[in-house]
Every structure is written in structure tokens, then in C-alpha cells.
């Protein structure tokens, strides 16, 4: 074996260093490629990890911002009961989520705060199931600096009012409620999802905002005051969910959507203030 | 003798260049070329563009007013805590813009540190065009300060000393000697500052909110447009890419590495190019 080792030792020292350096570079490049593929490939890893029992899947659930707290809690329960299933939630304005799916975002389940946004994806989803309903409420900072007591008070031009943008379901419902009362309002900002409206009120930057009753409950009485809207002036939003036809784990996605109508999930939704579908 | 660049460097370099190029090609490929003028003439786009121009130029003016003295202070005056101040100036460049927006709310919002003071003066920044300008200044001014400070530090003090011996006060010296001599860097810093202000998104939407005509600048508009009208969003993106390219073109001498005599410092002996080590072969 000695002869084969000779050429290596015989090669000039000056060449050995660059060779080692380029090997290092190659290793660095390989590491970079591995790092990149690791970022995108966790679902593959999960599939490969499937053994004997159930198949490991990760479901990506795009959900309306108003579902943030309740879905986080429901997700933990669901994962406990369905070992091998991991849920990843991405929250945003429903219209934003729909836009993401149109642009090809890989997702398995979509849950929106309006049937219209869901229907705008017709053909890319299974038949949607309405799993909850929600009403709107006025919220103000706890000390209610704008002295808001009713919808009519929102028309005060000096009031710092924040609504969700027209394309956001909560913004659409909010404007409809105000229109029905023939109230002209001039919002100071049109936020891109309902939770941004809530946070502007929580921070005290806005004197009032229109959000879902569940958002006010999730925020807690210490951080916002809810000024209820009378039932005959209010609007009830329907929340549909559907598995996406393009999902790689379509059956698991459909199973999660069906679970949302189970007594257990409905109990969690009711606790968070959502109404029965 | 020209050496062939080693493949182990060339391939990742090309991959890196392609990675930067492909998304821009995507915008070009997807742009609604036939309808471009119509898309850009859309009233919503025109309103957002007008507001963006107003906000970004105001941000540039404010940045010049505060940034030039700040750069001068960092380059010309020795004081304790200078490194801390320089880090403070750099911070917004590396801070996530949304965090900048939250920080602005906590500092200058209605319930922020100075909120009470501002309110007693009748100033409320959130949800106002002034708030959008403040957000843009916060993230963009560092580009001006850093650019100018580098140039000031590279300027031989003999010119300023000569002006002083001829009886010019510090302000006169700054105005008639220092600034003209650093004009290229000042212009480059101003262009970068303006471009950053024009592109500002995260701090604006967090701190100033989103209202057409008041705080909805072009980047906010394009973000919302993507949800409603993806082709329109691509058209506006193309416009913003064109603006960015124009800024780089205007800066071509300074940032694109073409030959231009470096400031005098480069001639200092310590900076002399090191002789290249020859490969043994």
C-alpha cells in the first residue's frame, strides 16, 4: 500500500494548501445547500419518519386573525389526540390568506371569517363547512377617552377610530353595520387584519375600533373595554373552513376540518365566545 | 497574467447572482406590459405615489437637517460614548422595521414616553402623514449619516484648518468648505436615504397606520393591491424597481466600484495594496 501513498506526500506543499482550501469551500457550499434543504424539507422528513403506526404529517392551517387564540388552544388538543399530526398555523386577514393561496402558498386547510372570501377560492377547496359564528363589538381603551357609548358616537370626526380595511371581512362587516345606521365615519387607519385594529386600541393609539366580540374577550377587560352593539344593529359573521384540493395530506386536512364540528372543538370555540354554527 | 477563476468560487458566485436576479426577472415577466400605463394611472396608485413622494422628500429634508450635524459630530468631535452614539445611529439599519414601528409607538405614540408632551403641543403622530415621515426618517437617516461620516473622516483636515486660519467660523467652514468637498458622498447618502424612505413599509404600517391619502404610501398600497389585483401590484412593483435602478444608476460612480480616485487616505502607506502572493506552480 505504500506506493499509492507516495504521490500524495510527494506533491509540493504549495499545492496541498489550495486543495485543502477548496475542499473546505466545497464543504461550506454543501453545508449551505443542506441548511437550505433542511429549511424547506421538514414535511418530507416527517413522511420518512413514518413507522409502523400512523403516518406523521404536518398540516399547514391558514386561519383568519380572529381565530388566533382559539386555534392555538384547539391545535394543542388536536395534536394530543392525533399523535403524529402536527399543526402549523398561519394567521392573517382572510383576504390576505386567500391571496397567499392564489400565489401558490403550500397549505392544507383554510379557515376564513367570511363565506365570500372562502367562495372566491371556489374550485381550490373542498365544500366549506361553517364551524362558528361571531358578532362584532366596539372596543375602546379601558378608560374610554373618547366617551364612546354607542355606534352613533363613532361618527364623531374628532374621535380616533380604527377599522379593518374594506377587503378584510371584519372591515366589510363593520362598514355594513355603520351603513345600516346611516353613519358616516372617517377612520384614521384601515388595518390589514382585525387583530391589528385590536392592538391599536390596546396601545391607546385609537379611541375606538370595531372588532369581533371574541377579540375583545381574548384581549381581556384589563386591556380593552367592549361597548356592545345591540343585536338588532349587529351582524353575525360566518366562519367556514375547508381542506384545500391541492393539499398533499388531503385526508388529514379533511379530518381536521370535520373535527372542528365535533363537540370538543365546539366547546373550545364556545369558551372563546364564538357562537354555534 | 490572467488566472482563470477557480470553479469552487465561480459556481457559488453565479448561483448567488442568479438568486438575486430571478425574482426581478419574475416581476418583468409577470408585469402587465400592455396595460402598464393604465394600471399606473389608477387613482389609488396615483394617490399613493403622490403621498410617497411627499413623505420620502420630507423625510430626506428632515434627515439632512439632523443627519448632517450628526455626521459632523461623529467625524469631527471626540467625546466619551462616541462608539455608543455611532451604534445608536446604525441600529435602525439592522433593526426589523416592524420593531422600529413598535419602538416609535412606545416612544412617540399617544401613550408613549413623549406622547403627553407631544399631545400638549397639539401633535399626534400615529395615523398622520407626519407619523409616516417620522417612521421614514427613523429608518432612512442612518444611511445619510454613515455615508457622510465616512467622507468627513476621509477628508484631510488641512482644508478646514486653512479656512479657520482665514477667519471662517465653524458653520461657515462646514458650509463653504467641508460640505462642497464631501458633496459626492453627501449626494450618495441622500439618494440612499431617500430610496430607503420611499420603500419604507414595516415601521409605517405599525406606527402610522394605513389610510389612503394620509399614511398609505406606495409600498403599503402595493401590499394591499396584491390581495385584490395581483397584476396591478406587479405593475406598481415594476415602478418601484425602476426607481431603485435609477437611484443605483445615479450612484454608479460611488457604489458600483468603477474607477474614481479614492479620497486621499487611500494613498496612505498603510493602505497600499499588499503584493499578491504568487502561487507555486
UniProtKB/TrEMBL annotation, chain A:
Keywords: Metal-binding, Molybdenum, Signal. GO terms for biological process: molybdate ion transport. It comes from the Bacteria. GO terms for molecular function: metal ion binding; molybdate ion binding. Molybdate binds at residues 66, 94, 170, 194, 212. InterPro entries: ModA, ModA/WtpA. Residues 1-40 form the signal peptide. Belongs to the bacterial solute-binding protein ModA family. This is Molybdate ABC transporter substrate-binding protein. It comes from Streptomyces hoynatensis.
Automatic annotation (TrEMBL), chain B:
Residues 262-271 have a biased composition (Low complexity). The chain crosses the membrane at residues 53-75, 87-105, 125-146, 231-251. Residues 262-281 are annotated as: Disordered. It is found in: Cell membrane; Membrane. Pfam families: BPD_transp_1. InterPro entries: MetI-like, MetI-like_sf, ModB_ABC, NifC_ABC_porter, Sulph_transpt2. This is Molybdenum transport system permease. It comes from Streptomyces hoynatensis. The lineage of its organism: Bacteria, Bacillati, Actinomycetota, Actinomycetes, Kitasatosporales. The gene is modB.
Amino acid at each position: 500500500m505504500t506506493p499509492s501513498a507516495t504521490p500524495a506526500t510527494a506533491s509540493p506543499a504549495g499545492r496541498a494548501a489550495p486543495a485543502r482550501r477548496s475542499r473546505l469551500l466545497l464543504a461550506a457550499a454543501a453545508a449551505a445547500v443542506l441548511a437550505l434543504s433542511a429549511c424547506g424539507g421538514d414535511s418530507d422528513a416527517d413522511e420518512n419518519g413514518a413507522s409502523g403506526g400512523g403516518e406523521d404529517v404536518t398540516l399547514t392551517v391558514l386561519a383568519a386573525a380572529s381565530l388566533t387564540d382559539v386555534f392555538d388552544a384547539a391545535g394543542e388538543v388536536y395534536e394530543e389526540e392525533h399523535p403524529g399530526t402536527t399543526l402549523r398555523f398561519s394567521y392573517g386577514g382572510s383576504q390576505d390568506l386567500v391571496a397567499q393561496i392564489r400565489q401558490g402558498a403550500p397549505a392544507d386547510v383554510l379557515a376564513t371569517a367570511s363565506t365570500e372570501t372562502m367562495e372566491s377560492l371556489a374550485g381550490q377547496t373542498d365544500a366549506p363547512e361553517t364551524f362558528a359564528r361571531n358578532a362584532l363589538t366596539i372596543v375602546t381603551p379601558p378608560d374610554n377617552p373618547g366617551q364612546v357609548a354607542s355606534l352613533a358616537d363613532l361618527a364623531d370626526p374628532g374621535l380616533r377610530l380604527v377599522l379593518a380595511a374594506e377587503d378584510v371581512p371584519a372591515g366589510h362587516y363593520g362598514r355594513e353595520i355603520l351603513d345600516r345606521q346611516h353613519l358616516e365615519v372617517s377612520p384614521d387607519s384601515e388595518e390589514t387584519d382585525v387583530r391589528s385594529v385590536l392592538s391599536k386600541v390596546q396601545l391607546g393609539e385609537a379611541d375606538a375600533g370595531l372588532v369581533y366580540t371574541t377579540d375583545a374577550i381574548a384581549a381581556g377587560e384589563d386591556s380593552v373595554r367592549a361597548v356592545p352593539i345591540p343585536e338588532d344593529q349587529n351582524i353575525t359573521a360566518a366562519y367556514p373552513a375547508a381542506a384545500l384540493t391541492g393539499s398533499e395530506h388531503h385526508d388529514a386536512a379533511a379530518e381536521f376540518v370535520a373535527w372542528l364540528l365535533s363537540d370538543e372543538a365546539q366547546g373550545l370555540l364556545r369558551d372563546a365566545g364564538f357562537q354555534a354554527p | 497574467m490572467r488566472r482563470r477563476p477557480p470553479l469552487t468560487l465561480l459556481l457559488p458566485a453565479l448561483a448567488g447572482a442568479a438568486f438575486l436576479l430571478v425574482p426581478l426577472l419574475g416581476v418583468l415577466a409577470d408585469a402587465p406590459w400592455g396595460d402598464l400605463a393604465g394600471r399606473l394611472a389608477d387613482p389609488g396608485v396615483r394617490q399613493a405615489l403622490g403621498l410617497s413622494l411627499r413623505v420620502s422628500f420630507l423625510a430626506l429634508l428632515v434627515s439632512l437637517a439632523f443627519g448632517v450635524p450628526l455626521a459632523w459630530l461623529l467625524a469631527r468631535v471626540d467625546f466619551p460614548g462616541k462608539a455608543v452614539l455611532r451604534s445608536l445611529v446604525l441600529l435602525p439599519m439592522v433593526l426589523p422595521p416592524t420593531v422600529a414601528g413598535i419602538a416609535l409607538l412606545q416612544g412617540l405614540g399617544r401613550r408613549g414616553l413623549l406622547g403627553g408632551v407631544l399631545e400638549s403641543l397639539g401633535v399626534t403622530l400615529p395615523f398622520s402623514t407626519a407619523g409616516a415621515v417620522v417612521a421614514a426618517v427613523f429608518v432612512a437617516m442612518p444611511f445619510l449619516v454613515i455615508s457622510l461620516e465616512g467622507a468627513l473622516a476621509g477628508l484631510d483636515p488641512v482644508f478646514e484648518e486653512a479656512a479657520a486660519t482665514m477667519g471662517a467660523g465653524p458653520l461657515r467652514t462646514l458650509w463653504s468648505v467641508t460640505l462642497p468637498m464631501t458633496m459626492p458622498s453627501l449626494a450618495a447618502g441622500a439618494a440612499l436615504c431617500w430610496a430607503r424612505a420611499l420603500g419604507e413599509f414595516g415601521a409605517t404600517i405599525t406606527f402610522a397606520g394605513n389610510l389612503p391619502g394620509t399614511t398609505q404610501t406606495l409600498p403599503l398600497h402595493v401590499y394591499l393591491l396584491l390581495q385584490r389585483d395581483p397584476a396591478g401590484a406587479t405593475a406598481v412593483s415594476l415602478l418601484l424597481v425602476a426607481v431603485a435602478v435609477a437611484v443605483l444608476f445615479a450612484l454608479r460612480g460611488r457604489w458600483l466600484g468603477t474607477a474614481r480616485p479614492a479620497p486621499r487616505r487611500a494613498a496612505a502607506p498603510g493602505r497600499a495594496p499588499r503584493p499578491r502572493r504568487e502561487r507555486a506552480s
